[in-house]
Amino acid sequence: MSIEKSNSSDSPNGILSHNLFLNGILCKTLVFLSLILYLLHIFLSNHPCCQSSSSLLQVFPTKNIIKSSNYYYNSSNKTNISHLVFGIAASSNTWGEKKWYINSWWKPNITRGYVFLDRTPNEHVPWPVSSPPYRISSDNSQYAPYNKHRMPFAIRMVRVIEETFMLHHGPGVRWYVMADDDTVLMIDNLVNVLTKYDHTKYYYVGMNSECIVSNFGNSFQMAFGGAGYALSYPLAQAVAKNMDTCIKRYPYLYGSDHILQACIADLGVTITLEKGFHQIDLRRDISGFLSAHPQSPFLSLHHLDLVAPIFPSMNRFEALNHLMKAASVDQSRLLQQSTCYNKLNNWTFSVSWGYSVQIYDKIQSQSYLAMPIETFGEWRKGAWPPYMFNVRGLKSNNGNSCGEVPNVLFFDSLEGTRMNHIVTTYVKKTPRSCGNDDHPIDGILKIRVFSPMHKLHVGDGNKRECCDIIQPIGVDSMAVKLRTCTRHEINARMK
């Protein structure tokens, strides 16, 4: 009997050979793919656009730890006044008449920084401990060929940021705040504002001018130094490192603020606007402006020697110190606007805490009251349109309703605390310009404002405070109470 020969592939040896062949192909494929992935990883890890991608490979990143250029920062550690360094541009010739602006907010042994003068202040020695320590600006003669600026001291002033950084750049510095010698800063509010920004990134925080012509002549992307501005540590470091070439690159810009803005733009950074910085490129009486502050923390004032005293019957020095009394009690509410209505008489009360109370003998809307009364004038006469914001005219008795003209009472005193509230008083200083007719609101000479003890969180999604009328205390006085608005509360009345 013949037996048919079996196929070799069905034999055990054939099956084994076939499996080895397949395994060899698979191994070669895996080796090839591994090589491709390795080369791809090498290429991407060295490509400029992917330098930060390594963080994605961290399986167990360190929680809340951010590496800065000079120290590790725990993001749960809030910014405080010790993290700020101030650089103030000044002149020995004018320091005697300007120093009280700086001394109004400077806190010896708490705030740190320097006043940079153009020469040794022989006429001001001994230097008082109530003022920031001074330094003499470095010699800038090497930049003479590049000084084509209309502001002759622009280069010295722009180098203040560089010199401040070189003097203070150790661990613990997060922000560099630049100001002029007539800048008034609200440093508690400033610290709270800067807390919301990551100081390990590139931030240029400030505000442009109130007047269009000033921004047009410089840049709408420029922070005005008189109002003050803040640079985060990495940005200040980069600016200081590149200051020399930047000065040489921009010899024709008008002044120091514009030079700095151009330098920062070259670094790929744009301004972060904070409406509480105030350049005050305005003239005359700015009470209308201060009584309708934007819904943002009040951070600074400038040019107070070019406007009328901010409180009537006081000189500029007295008026500023008077404002700082309110600031010392509750800076978070200072100038913040609240509105309440007397339904019985159709009266409107607009409270600018720590500054003024305006009373109208008709119902006025929130949007109307948010526009400042134009008690002030434009920076450059004839410029049109003059302002970066809407204003309302101050109508008088020339055929117009007196409902547009408020009875204004100004901050007078702090009465202390009562029922877990801070009590401030506001009194009438001047008669209302509304003809000879008597109006009931003109008889109100004093108002007490009760405000909560807790700090106010302004802006960033928070509403304004609401306001209630308390029963009249006397014939010529009333009281109002500020409070947190209820959910979805509309603070308005029908006209």
UniProtKB/TrEMBL annotation:
Pfam families in UniProt: DUF604
Keyword annotations: Membrane, Transmembrane, Transmembrane helix
GO molecular function, one term: acetylglucosaminyltransferase activity
Source organism superkingdom: Eukaryota
TM segment ranges: 20-44
Protein name: Beta-1,3-glucosyltransferase
